[in-house]
Every structure is written in structure tokens, then in C-alpha cells.
TrEMBL record, chain A:
Record's protein name: Putative aldouronate transport system substrate-binding protein
Organism whose genome encodes this protein: Paenibacillus rhizosphaerae
Region (Disordered): 32-54
InterPro entries, alphabetized: Bact_solute-bd_prot1
CDD domains: PBP2_AlgQ_like_3
Coiled-coil annotated spans: none
Keyword Ligase: no
Residue spans of biased composition, Polar residues class: 34-54
Source lineage: Bacteria, Bacillati, Bacillota, Bacilli, Bacillales
Signal peptide: 1-25
From TrEMBL, chain B:
GO terms classed as biological process: transmembrane transport
Keywords carried by this UniProt record: Membrane, Transmembrane, Transmembrane helix, Transport
The species this protein was found in: Paenibacillus rhizosphaerae
Protein name: Putative aldouronate transport system permease protein
Topology relative to the membrane: Multi-pass membrane protein
Gene3D superfamilies, alphabetized: MetI-like (1.10.3720.10)
Major localization listed first in the record, in broad terms: membrane
Transmembrane region(s): 31-52, 94-115, 136-156, 196-214, 226-249, 285-310
InterPro entries with a match to the protein in the record: MetI-like (IPR000515), MetI-like_sf (IPR035906)
Domain ABC transmembrane type-1 intervals: 90-306
SUPFAM superfamilies cross-referenced by the UniProt entry: MetI-like
Length: 567, 319
């Protein structure tokens, strides 16, 4: 008996070990993350117990997925602390690391959703959000009031439910704006200053200015001057694709131009050809950076930050980091002015628009949220003016001051802190607030919701170079370079139309983008005599794509929006 | 341990023919028990997922149950094979794979032969360590290094200019004709040291008596390399070759994705990128699955062909 027992015993031990190795290998990742979450919440829970004095608020946790890269706020962040004290809510953020589609694929495959998730059409299609309209009607009077005028627009075109609370585009009171975030032809301030502050309207004038400046200053701070940059990297493709629609006086509708409610692609049109031919000529003159189509986004920002790039077509927010770097280096004359360039003087520019409702962005509550009522009530509290002031301006006395006229202002010291990333992690709740429903425009006391847009605050914060620059033009801010935007068409903007995953329209759109990515650089870099043949090849390839499926889908949605969004 | 156990049993119960009887099973029960976890592992992670291939014949939508999916037959395969770009991405995949395969084998074997000839252990270890360190870098970093070195003011252009081989810097990454070469060279730089390890191990197992005998016959260093070392590692080479041929459709994804741009897209897009762009990025998981099936089928076919050829040539084989 003993003889038989021994080998069996050994075998048992061996198998147990094998299994435990396999199991621990499988389960390791999950255990860790659970531990982390556990320790984080444990820590915050004790914090909360210590600080809530009245004991009325009941602490609860909200897990949040933010669909973009970001940094965790510090554990003692003062705004989150205030939220915790007054509402009981503690946020556990998960920021995107890596590729969004990959991350979403994993989340969807496992139905592994946190309580709050930023909007994404893939998640909507997978049924990851709960409908919010009844919850809002019942529990969230403030949100209801906030979104009242936009109610129909927020409904999902496919099933008529509201899943996402748009984070931008709801305006109250007078809209002050001193910072233009959108697309434009940008030019270094020094180029304009040296030319005697001219008004630049047309594409030809724009490139003439750049050419002259480059001829006069072949190097800037020792590095060769770059005339014009075109960024086309991954999804940041508008630097190459979008200018033609603006040049004929249309707003940004993505890949189409809409005339009287009818959309058509413009990539193959003559006014597009005119632009790329111009770029081709400019390339021949050596104005366009040779490496422009090979560079990635980081290299692009690095070039802009060096102050050697005279101009580019881009959206302001896309290169804001580079500009901030220039400001830190005190190279104010190397920062940029956006110009609403058109083909000919008679065209009215339509770059600046009234910000449309930011559909499919902002938070939605997931199907896995245990207590959606609590969350919607929390969001309802946070949309009130006091909280909104806390998010934008900060805490009175610490982050801003109120002057005798009741206007909010900042001291220079407070202003400087606002551009300090480390300080912000401890004192601002940007990760949350960026995606929350928010009041834009002005508060009921007349103060601007955005410190940078408060006129006196903007002026006070300007450096001497910009003060002089704006005086020369007689403008209050750089936004004045653009025409006042007209009322948006109801369907605007066409770029926010969801083409529906996997549909023929979406495939056609991907193909069109592929073709443009492939042929436009070729056409621009071609010998001027070859330009036409490359262009013809490009357009003939476009005509092979099922453009109609793409245009039809957009037109269908434009019609749908006109039918459903009209008040 | 497994070996000693079987030996013991074999002695106790001599068998003429290996027939599977209850007695055999019983006598080898320890071995069988030991193989259970791994078999389970393979069934769970290699065979059960094959069920997912059904997705390729559906218009798969996440969060729907199996019975609610639309069945579309071969629609996804049709899209894949009739797309104009497919031939192009297939050509790129095979082209780059082939270059990687040839360059990878030749450089690794040559480096291993050279290292094997070095008699000073310290020097040998140093070279080996330096050459395999890049293996541990991720492709994101390697492509960053490659892009920087190939930039107009990068080190490659600098050197070529200093040597007066070129007059103007070449924009390496904007010319399709250089792309395959760049990918091949980056692979060599990253993997050559790592790939030598297995050959060096194979060389270490060659009987020193063979070298001594060759020396007695007056063989020079080159002769010994050619007639002792190379034949000694031939079986290793063949096995590795068969295994690599099975992966010929895995030309890689990161390198091409990260180094590619609009100007070289005709030469840079591989099957994996195509599937990502039109499958996963579009939420069309069915198309992605169809692409995966295609790759698997081709790989298995190639593997079998290579294996059969090796058998015919009287070489070591895998199956």
C-alpha cells in the first residue's frame, strides 16, 4: 500500500503545482487591477470618512472611462475633494492607454463597462449605454432645463433615445470669445508685422507673404526657415484634406460641401484641384517642407515649437501645445494668427462657426452602472452655476478674485498657475469637467463661463507684443480676424454624421481617405508638368469608389436632421 | 524526468509493438495525467476559439446572441478577395516576409558562424550581448529610431554625404522602392543577435572529435566551418525554416504601420493593416475574421508543403 501511495502522492503534488502555475498565469492581471481599485477606493473612503462633517452625504464610487489619454489627478485634488465632501461622489478614472478601437473592442467583447463612459458610436452600437431621457425627466430638472432647446438633437438617429450628454455646444447668455480653436490658414505674427500688418484675404496673398519672408530670412535662430507645413498623420488629416471647402467660403463639413441641403464630396472638384495645384507650385518654389508628408504628429509639433515654420493649415487646438511652448520660450513673434483665407476677395469667409452641439461626445451612463439614478442626480447637481464656477474659475479667493463691479478676475500669479500642468492636476478637475455637461457663454451674473473669454481678463493677460499687434489691426482679440459667423444651418455640421460602423458609406469614406492620403502628396510633390496626370489618376480612382453610398448616407441624415431637429 | 520514468517502465515491461492497450495506458498513467493540463490548455485556447470562425460567415454584431446574427455566406471573403487593394497588400506581405526570411536566416547564420570562431570568451559574450539587446526594444521605439536616422538631417544621410556618395540628402521614407529594404534592415538590426542564440546552441552540441579529425586531415578554418559546423546545424536550420515558412503571411504590423505614410502606402500596406482598416476599425469583425482565416489556411498549407519537401529531401522535419 505504502509503495503505491508514494508515487501517487508525488503525482498529486506535481499536478497541483502545474495547475497553480497555469491558473496564476491566467488570473494575474485581473487580480492586480482589482487590488488596485480596491486600495484606491479604500483610501478615498477613509479620506471621506474623515472630512465629511455633517455626515449627511453618503459616499459612493463612480468608475469613469475617459476615451483619451490623460493623467490621473493627484489623490488630494482640491476640486474632487470638494465634490466628495458635498455630494459624496468619488471618481475612479480610467484613461485610454493605446488605441481607442482596440480598447473598445476588448470592453465590448467582455461587456466590461464602468459606470460612466465618454461617448463613442461603437459603444452606442453595442448597446453599452442606457437611455437617459426618462431619468432626466424624473430626477434631473437642471439638466432638463440645460438641454431643453437641444432635446431633439441629442436623440440617437437610429432609435430615438438619448444616450450621451453632449459636453460642448449649449450656450447661455452673451457669448464672449477671445480664442479661436477652429481651422484656419495660420501664419507667424512676425510675417504680418514685417509686412506692415496687411489684411490678408486670398490664397495668393497668403503665399506671397510667406515667400517674401522666407526669401528675406532663410534661417530663423540658425535653423532653415520652413514656409508651409501640411500635417497628414493618422486621423489628423484635415491639414491636407479640408482647405478647399473653406477656400470657397464653406464651413467645415468634413469630406463634403453642402449646398441647399444637398451634400457632395469635393475631393475631385476643380476648386480642390486649384488648391493642390497651388501647393504644387509652392513646392516647386521650395516653400513646402520636404518632409511634411513623412512626419508624424510629434515631429510636426517639434517643428512648430522651434519657431521656424511660417504657416500651415490646421485647427488651433491641434497645435496649441506647440504654441504654448513658443510662449514659454518668450518667442511671441513666432506664435500664430489664424487667417480666413479664400480664393477671391468677393467670397465671404466662413471658417469661424457657432459651435454646434458636440454630439457623441460627453458622458453616457453604462448598462453596468448599479445606481443610474444616483449618477444622474450627481450630474444634475454639477450643472448648477456654483459648481460650474468651481470647475471653470476655481475657488473664490484662491483661484480668482471678484472686483468691485462683481466681475471675476485673476491676479498674474493665479493666471500663471492656470498654465502649469502639475498645478492643474492638484487643483483642477479637467478630466471630469472636459466631458461633463457645461454652461457656456455667461453665468446669470454676467461673468463669462470661460476665464480666457472674460474680456477684461483677456486684455489683462495679454503680453506687450500681442497688445501692440492687436492695436496695429485695431482688433480686440485674434478672433476678430474672422467674420461674424451666421446662424448655423439646422443640419450643421455634416462631419458629425455617424456613417454607421461597417456600412458601405463608411467603407467608401475610408477608401476616399486612403486615396487622398496616397495621391494628394504625390500630386503636390510632382513635377508641375506631371501634376495634371497625377490629378487625373486620382479623380479616376475616386470615381471607382462607391461615392454615392457615402453621399446618400450623408444626405439622408441631413434630411433626417432637418425633419427632426427643426423646432 | 519524463525520460527516466519511461525508461524504467520499459525495462519492467518489454514491448515488441506499441499497441494501445489498457495495460499500456495504466502503466503510463502518470505521463497521461501530466499531459492533461496542457491538453486542456490547448483545447481551450487553440481549438475552442476556432468556433469564432463562424463570425466570418455572418454580419457579426457585438452584444447579440449567436442565434440573432445575420448569416451572409461568403460575402466577407468576396469583399476581401475582390478588393483592388488586396493583391497589392498580399504582394507587400509576401515580399516583405520573404526579404525578412532570407535576410534573417543569412545574417543570423553568418553571425553565429563568426561568433563560433571567436576563441576569447569575453569578446564573444560582449558581441553577442550587444547584438541581441535591440531585440528587447519594442517596435514603436525601433521605428522612432529608424525614422530619426533616416530623416534628411539623420545619421544615414550625414554619413552618405560625408562619404560623398550622395549630393543631396535622400528622403528614404518617402520613396516606395526603399521601403521593403528599410523594413528588412530594421528587422536585421533588431533580431539578428537574438536569432543567433539557437544556432550557437546547436553548434555547441557538435562533437569536438569531428573538428579534431578534420584538423588531422589538414582542414583549414573555412573548411571546418563548411564541412563540420554547417552540416552540424543543418537540421536546426531546416526546422526553423519550416516554422518560418508557416509565418510567411505575418510580415508584421507595427513596422509598416508606424513607418508607412501616404507616399509609400503602395509598398507599405500589409494584410494585417488592411484587415485593421477595413475590419476592426470599421467595427466589421466578420471581415477581420475572414482575413484571419485566410491567413491561417495559407499558413497551414505552406507549412505542410515545406514539411513534405523536407521529407522528400531526406531532411529533418517538423511533423
Amino acid at each position: 500500500m505504502g509503495g503505491r501511495f508514494k508515487p501517487l502522492f508525488r503525482l498529486g503534488i506535481l499536478m497541483a503545482m502545474t495547475f497553480s502555475v497555469i491558473l496564476s498565469g491566467c488570473g494575474g492581471g485581473k487580480d492586480n487591477s482589482a487590488d488596485n481599485a480596491g486600495s484606491a477606493t479604500g483610501q478615498t473612503a477613509t479620506d471621506n470618512g474623515g472630512s465629511s462633517s455633517d455626515g449627511k452625504v453618503e459616499p459612493f464610487n463612480v468608475s469613469v472611462f475617459i476615451g483619451e489619454a490623460g493623467q490621473q489627478p493627484t489623490p488630494d485634488n482640491k476640486i474632487y475633494k470638494k465634490i466628495k465632501e458635498e455630494t459624496g461622489a468619488t471618481f475612479n478614472f480610467e484613461f485610454l492607454a493605446g488605441d481607442i478601437n482596440q480598447k473598445l473592442g476588448v470592453m465590448i467583447a467582455g461587456s466590461d463597462y464602468p459606470d460612466l463612459m465618454t461617448g463613442n458610436t461603437k459603444l452606442t452600437a453595442a448597446g453599452a449605454y442606457i437611455p437617459l431621457e426618462d431619468l432626466i425627466e424624473k430626477y434631473a430638472p437642471n439638466l432638463k432645463k440645460h438641454y431643453e432647446a437641444y432635446w431633439n438633437m441629442m436623440k440617437d438617429p437610429n432609435d430615438g433615445h438619448i444616450y450621451i450628454l453632449p459636453n460642448y455646444g449649449v450656450f447661455n447668455g452673451k457669448l464672449n470669445s477671445s480664442w479661436y480653436a477652429g481651422p484656419a490658414f495660420w501664419v507667424q505674427k512676425d510675417v504680418l508685422a514685417e509686412a506692415g500688418y496687411p489684411k490678408v484675404r486670398t490664397l495668393d496673398e497668403y503665399f506671397d507673404l510667406i515667400a517674401k519672408y522666407k526669401a528675406k530670412h532663410p534661417t530663423i535662430d540658425g535653423s532653415p526657415t520652413i514656409g508651409f507645413e501640411i500635417l497628414n498623420y493618422d486621423w489628423r488629416n484635415w491639414g491636407l484634406f479640408n482647405p478647399p471647402q473653406h477656400l470657397i467660403g464653406h464651413p467645415n463639413d468634413g469630406g463634403v460641401v453642402v449646398n441647399n441641403g444637398a451634400a457632395e464630396i469635393f475631393a475631385d472638384k476643380d476648386y480642390a484641384k486649384q488648391y493642390y495645384q497651388k501647393l504644387n507650385q509652392m513646392n516647386e518654389q521650395g516653400l513646402i517642407d520636404k518632409e511634411t508628408f513623412v512626419q508624424n504628429y510629434d515631429q510636426y509639433l517639434a517643428k512648430l515649437s522651434s519657431g521656424t515654420v511660417l504657416g500651415m493649415f490646421d485647427q488651433h487646438w491641434n497645435f496649441q501645445n506647440a504654441e504654448n511652448s513658443l510662449i514659454t520660450q518668450k518667442k511671441f513673434n513666432r506664435t500664430y494668427v489664424g487667417l480666413p483665407i479664400v480664393y477671391d476677395e468677393s467670397t465671404k469667409d466662413y471658417y469661424r462657426d457657432r459651435a454646434p452641439l458636440n454630439l457623441n461626445n460627453g458622458f453616457g451612463i453604462s448598462v453596468n452602472a448599479k445606481d443610474p439614478v444616483k449618477i444622474i442626480k450627481l450630474l444634475d447637481t454639477l450643472i448648477t452655476e456654483d459648481w460650474q464656477k468651481t470647475f471653470t474659475w476655481g475657488i473664490e479667493g484662491e483661484d480668482y478674485i471678484v472686483n468691485d463691479q462683481g466681475r471675476f478676475m485673476r491676479t498674474q500669479e493665479q493666471r500663471d498657475k492656470q498654465s502649469d500642468g502639475t498645478w492643474k492636476l492638484a487643483n483642477k478637475a479637467d478630466a471630469l469637467f472636459g466631458n461633463l455637461p457645461k454652461i457656456e457663454g455667461s453665468f446669470s451674473d454676467g461673468n463669462s463661463t470661460d476665464a480666457a473669454a472674460q474680456p477684461e481678463e483677456y486684455k489683462a493677460g495679454l503680453n506687450d507684443y500681442d497688445k501692440k499687434f492687436l492695436e496695429a489691426y485695431g482688433f480686440n482679440s485674434y478672433v476678430d480676424f474672422f467674420s461674424e459667423p451666421p446662424e448655423n444651418p439646422i443640419y450643421y455640421p455634416a462631419w458629425s454624421i455617424d456613417l454607421v460602423e461597417g456600412s458601405e458609406a463608411k467603407v467608401a469614406n475610408t477608401k476616399l481617405n486612403d486615396l487622398s492620403t496616397k495621391y494628394l502628396p504625390k500630386a503636390i510633390l510632382a513635377n508641375p508638368s506631371d501634376f495634371d496626370s497625377v490629378w487625373n489618376e486620382y479623380t479616376s480612382q475616386i470615381h471607382k469608389v462607391d461615392v454615392k453610398a457615402y453621399e446618400d448616407k450623408i444626405n439622408e441624415q441631413i434630411k433626417w436632421r432637418i425633419d427632426n431637429w427643426s423646432k | 524526468m519524463a525520460v527516466t520514468v519511461t525508461k524504467k517502465k520499459a525495462v519492467r515491461k518489454p514491448e515488441k509493438k506499441r499497441t494501445l492497450t489498457w495495460a499500456v495506458l495504466k502503466s503510463q498513467q502518470q505521463l497521461i495525467w501530466m499531459s492533461v493540463p496542457l491538453t486542456l490548455y490547448i483545447i481551450l485556447f487553440a481549438y475552442v476559439p476556432v468556433w469564432g470562425w463562424t463570425m466570418a460567415f455572418q454580419n457579426y454584431k457585438p452584444a447579440r446572441s449567436f442565434s440573432q446574427q445575420d448569416w451572409v455566406g461568403f460575402k466577407q471573403f468576396k469583399f476581401l478577395f475582390t478588393d483592388d487593394d488586396f493583391i497589392r497588400v498580399l504582394r507587400n506581405t509576401i515580399g516583405m516576409s520573404f526579404i525578412n526570411l532570407v535576410l534573417g536566416f543569412v545574417t543570423a547564420i553568418v553571425l553565429a558562424l563568426l561568433l563560433n570562431e571567436i576563441r576569447k570568451v569575453v569578446w564573444k559574450r560582449t558581441v553577442q550581448t550587444i547584438s541581441y539587446l535591440p531585440h528587447f526594444l519594442s517596435w514603436v521605439i525601433v521605428t522612432g529610431i529608424v525614422a530619426t536616422s533616416l530623416a534628411s538631417d539623420g545619421i544615414i544621410n550625414d554619413i552618405l554625404m560625408k562619404l560623398h556618395l550622395i549630393k543631396e540628402p535622400i528622403l528614404w521614407l518617402s520613396e516606395g522602392k526603399y521601403f521593403w529594404g528599410i523594413v528588412g534592415a530594421s528587422h536585421v538590426w533588431k533580431e539578428v543577435g537574438w536569432n543567433t542564440i539557437i544556432y550557437l546552441a546547436a553548434m555547441a552540441s557538435i562533437d569536438p572529435a569531428l573538428y579534431e579529425a578534420a584538423e588531422m586531415d589538414g582542414a583549414s578554418r573555412y573548411r571546418k566551418m563548411l564541412h563540420v559546423t554547417l552540416p552540424g546545424i543543418k537540421s536546426t536550420i531546416v526546422i526553423l525554416l519550416i516554422m518560418s515558412i508557416g509565418h510567411i503571411l505575418d510580415a508584421g504590423f507595427e513596422v509598416q504601420y508606424l513607418l508607412g505614410n501616404g507616399l509609400v502606402v503602395d509598398w507599405a500596406e500589409t494584410i494585417d493593416i488592411f484587415v485593421l482598416k477595413y475590419g476592426i476599425a470599421q467595427g466589421n469583425y466578420s471581415l477581420a475574421t475572414a482575413g484571419g482565416i485566410f491567413k491561417t489556411v495559407v499558413s497551414v498549407a505552406l507549412l505542410l508543403v515545406a514539411n513534405w519537401t523536407a521529407k522528400r529531401l531526406g531532411e529533418e522535419r517538423l511533423l
